[in-house]
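agent> call fold_tool(seq_1)
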Amino acid sequence: MIARMSRAFVKNQEDGAGEDLPDRPVSPHPNHVTAHGLALIEAEIAKLQHEQAAATAAQDRVAIARTSRDLRYWTARRASADVIAPPTDLGEVRFGTTVTIAREDGRNQTFRIVGEDEADPAHGTLSHVSPLAVALFGKQVGDVVTVGDTEAEIVGIA
């Protein structure tokens, strides 16, 4: 006797596999952005709209699902974006400031505090909700903050 396998266990691209991609998680934190960060969001939406049109023309279900999911994410991020003007008072660390810290090992590091979607520490931008940014907010040149297991002194704010 040959048992029949349920269709539920058969993966078939023609059955719409990839159409039900889960939404990208949206941060629960306020969506503070710089003017540049908002421009990046707008550019990402435009790029995705172009990709979605191409995927639709090609009837590429997987690409349509991916671009639809990503468009939902970026559209939500644009709708919730709170553009924060650059600070005029550079006496303390705020959103949008560039901060230089001196670590105990002698390294100096410089970061600009920006929105979550704009942040890329390898390129000198730091999310405003990161532990380091949170530790830096409200501090002034000369203040010492705990960074992980070490301390760092704020040596510049621009």
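agent> call fold_tool(seq_2)
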Amino acid sequence: MLTMVLGVLFLLGQVIGWQMMVRQGYFLVGNQKGVSYFYVLTFLHGLHLIAGLVVVGYWVGRALLYKVRYEEGKRIRVAGLFWHALDALWVYLFVFLQVNQLF
């Protein structure tokens, strides 16, 4: 449940960040210093996060209702792998973008 709370808080923080950028005049269109890339990447990250929250929420809900059977352990592990694969993907993208900014 903590994962879900932190995920939702992150999404809310992202929306607030987008609102602050719009107030400062940084919009999706116009490609001001790569701002459009920021919007697109953070939007995709948000979609991945929402998908992960749906999966985690499903299993948390089932666990709270005591409807998780031993045989479903593999599915829960796959859900965890999905969540951590997103972690790895975004850490890779962050490093990739930082390294390419240097050259």
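agent> summarizing second result for user.
The CA atoms of residues 93 and 99 lie 10 Å apart. The two ends are 41 Å apart (CA to CA).
agent> awaiting next instruction.
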